[in-house]
Each structure stands twice: as structure tokens, then as C-alpha cells.
Amino acid sequence: MVRWVLAFSLAMMVFAAGAAGNRASATANKVPCWIDVPAGETAECYRVRVPVYSDDDAPPHFYRLPVAVLKARAANPAADPVIVIQGGPGASFFHSAYPEQVSTEYLWAMTEPVRETRDVVIYDQRGVGLAEPALNCHEADGRAASAASPPGVEVPFYDRERDELARCYDRLVAAGIDLSSFTTPANADDLAVIIEALGYDQVNLWGMSYGTRVALVMLRRHGNLIRSVVLDGVYPPHIRADEQAPWATHRAFTRIFDDCARDAWCTKAYGDIGDRFAELLESLNEKPQAISVDDPRWPIGSEAVLDGDLLIFHMYDALYYGDAIPYVPALIDDALNYDLSGLGWFYWYPFIADWALDEGTFLSVTCREEMPRIRDDVVAKEIQKYGVYAMAGSTIMTDDICDAWPVPPLEPAEWEPVESDVPALLISGAYDPVTPPDWGEDAARYLLNGRHVEFLGAGHVPSAANRCASDLVAAFFDDPDPAALSLPDCRLFTEAADFSSVDW
């Protein structure tokens, strides 16, 4: 865990979009669309200039962001569109898969309920995807693509590409890119510029995962521009996420095992799966085992070595997706019966460059806003408390990785909870391992006109992948009254995972 000794402070304040001189520079240049537009749908695409800093004495300096407006199906759409804010930090809506695949079909399906009445604005944040500049580290991409075999358990996750990421940092700095300008407050200020440039008076925000943090900071800095907000997979700025990662990991697995214990079918099929699995993890930590890996980068039959900590790490990622959750007890049961082959189903993302994000943006934000405030003694106590489930959630980031990506730490005021009376709907998935429902409940305490709801069968960000959840989002935007909102009657919302639904 990082022990930060940073000898410099933030020398320049990020751009404040409310400053009159900078708002006048907000421009949106219409360009040919780069996204697929299905038959019967309409889109408009723009490049929007966003100032880097608010220092009026400095020469003008701008980034350019790609913005797509997915037009409503209504003949007379509402005047207040919905702006969707992607997660990460560093994830792109327009480069959606490793390493550079451009696929936007899912955006139309995800936003369909909202577009019945409103335009939907999709964009890439500064440093991300099709933005100029983008902070993709091709050095790390090359390292991941050229690996001759799956990495072993002896190398921490991020340290596998530390040298490549350090070279990426040096290249970006040499190109004149100020990596201290890629921050959450800057992302919020960029949204204010986009709203101005596209001529909107007010908008609705639909934030997902890290995008909820951007939306919350937007409420703090530019709340007058926001009519209503949906926060799905809530990631508040006052949460010390990495300190809580051991607990969050333990909580997600415990929720699965508790729900299995309450399910007569699951209990009969798998017994006391949680205690048995803990024994397997301890056994693997003592004696790691090889499993067959099905990955197109390596020959058929390639093997990876897993210990208990690494297995939890890979399973932790799988819990992001609600569809994977019913399979967890079945695959664990197979492993407990000495058939480890099913564990290969969980094996993915052995490198940071596998993630569909721009590594430079991810590190610029994370090494500025998360790692400087993490207390080693707290993390150590949490690891001791939560045992075999704890390490996967606590060892993703390391000393070396942020030492290789030096950026100034966040200002202490940015840690404060966001208070607002803007109508807000907060959504959580019960099995979410990375933004647990407790964080949504906590953030809601400061939103005076907010309501938190939990989808009992979902993982991370239900509204991005499930029609029941996106219908709820659309209903809220049509009538943003949290108290009067009718809750869904679908299985994903009302019931835990159906473990008997597993079909091999």
C-alpha cells in the first residue's frame, strides 16, 4: 500500500466553468458521426473544446472532447436531455473493448427507455477514448499483447507493467501534456462547458460507477445546471475506497453465501458453501494450483497458477456482472470436489492494459485522488479482520505504480461529502463488489431530495445492462420525485440470484 511523501502541491486550480471569460469560449463543432446509427434512429456528433485551466494570464489551452447526441424518438422531446457519464476513471463509451474495438450498438439499447422522451448525450471524458489528447499507454498494451504465457502469482497485478507505465508517463510529459489537469473536478467543469456549448439551460445526469463521482462533484460545482440525477454504482468522493476494499470484497461473497443458505435448492445442492470455500482459499494460498486458461492470446491448453488471493481477485471482477452470480456456488462446488477446471471461467484481465480504459487517465485520477489518503495501518487492520477475502480487494494498487506516476494530491476540500437538494435516485446492486450498497445509502444522507434503491439480484451498475433498471431510470427522469417513484416489480429488483437457473 502506498506511503505517500509528495513534496509538491497543486500549483494551478483546474478550470472553473463558471468563470465568464472561459464560458465565452465554449464551442461545439458539428462533425460526421463516428458511431453506428441503427435504422430509424438519429444522432448528431460534435467536438467540444474545454479549457484546461482558468488562469486568465496564461495562453489559451484547450482539450477536445467527442460528444454524441442520440436523438429522442418523440416528435417534441423534452428540453432537458440526459447526459450519461462513464466510469473508470478512464473508460470510454466509444472504445468499448480491449484493445481498440469501437462498438456503440449497446448505447442505443441501454438508452432506449430514456430516448422515448429525451435526447441522450454520450461523451468521452478528457484523456479518454476519442478525446484529444487521449492518455492510452500503448507501452502497456504492447506488454500485455506480447506476453508469452499467463503471469504467475509472484508478481502483483499492477507491478506487471510498472516499467511500461513509467515510460508512458515520461512520453506524455515530454509531449507537453500536464497530467495534473486530469481530475474529477476538471471532468465536472467540462460537463458545464458541454452544456453551455450545446445550448442547454438544464440537463439530467446519469452517472455510472466513477461517473457517479463526477456527477456528485458536478452537483457541488454547477448544481444550478442540473434538473435531476441518477447515480448507479455510487462512488462518493468522501469514501476512502481502498481502505474499505477488504470489507467490500468480503461483503460481496458473504452476500452470495448467505443468499444461497436462504435458498432451499442452493443449500441442498451445495451445503455450507461459504465455509468450504474459505478452506479451499487457504489451501490454495499454501499450495497454488495450475488451471487451464481459455484465452486467445495463448495456445490452447496454456496454464495459469492460482493461489487463493488471485482466485478471489478474478472472482471479484466476475461479480461486476449480475449474470455471473448464479454460477458462483456451482463453480466453487466443482473446485471443492477437486475439479479446478471451472475456475478457469473466472480467469481474465491479467494486465491493467486488458481493461477497456486509458491507463494514463486512470492513474492520473487514482494516484491523485485515492492513493494519497489511504492509511496503511487501517488497511492492515482490515486485511487481518477479513482474512482470506481481504487481499484481493487491497493489493490492486501498490507503492511502485503511483511512484511511477507522480501527480499532485487532491485538495482536502474535495474529500467532503456532496450536499444537494437536486432530485436524486441512487441505485445499487446487492452483489456489487466495488461500489457496495452501503456507499449509496451513505451518499443519500447528504442528498436532501434523494432516494436509494437496491436491486437484490444485481451486480455492478444494473441500469447499464438490464431493461428493468433502465426503465426505472427513464421513469425518474420523466417525473423526478423520489418519494413518488414507483419501484419495479421485476425479479432482478425483488429477489436474490436464482442459483437453480444455472444451465451449462
Count, helices:
18
Highest CATH level, the class of the domain at 27-131 and 178-240 and 416-494: Alpha Beta
Q: Poorly predicted ranges (pLDDT <50, ≥5 residues)?
A: 1-24, 97-101
Hey, roughly how much beta strand do the residues contain?
Answer: 5-15%
| Structural class by secondary-structure content | alpha/beta
Estimate the mean pLDDT confidence.
86
Order of helices and strands: HEEEEHEHHHEHEHHHEEHHHHHHEHEHH
Number of E-type strands: 11
Please state the overall shape, judged from the principal axes of the Cα atoms: globular
Distance between the termini: 40 Å
Largest sheet: 9 strands, mixed
CATH superfamily of the domain at 27-131 and 178-240 and 416-494: Alpha/Beta hydrolase fold, catalytic domain
Radius of gyration: 22 Å
Q: Determine the oligomeric state from the structure.
A: single chain
CATH topology of the domain at 27-131 and 178-240 and 416-494: Rossmann fold
Helix content: 25-40%
CATH architecture of the domain at 27-131 and 178-240 and 416-494: 3-Layer(aba) Sandwich
- Give the strand order, joined by hyphens, for the main sheet: 1-2-3-5-4-6-7-10-11
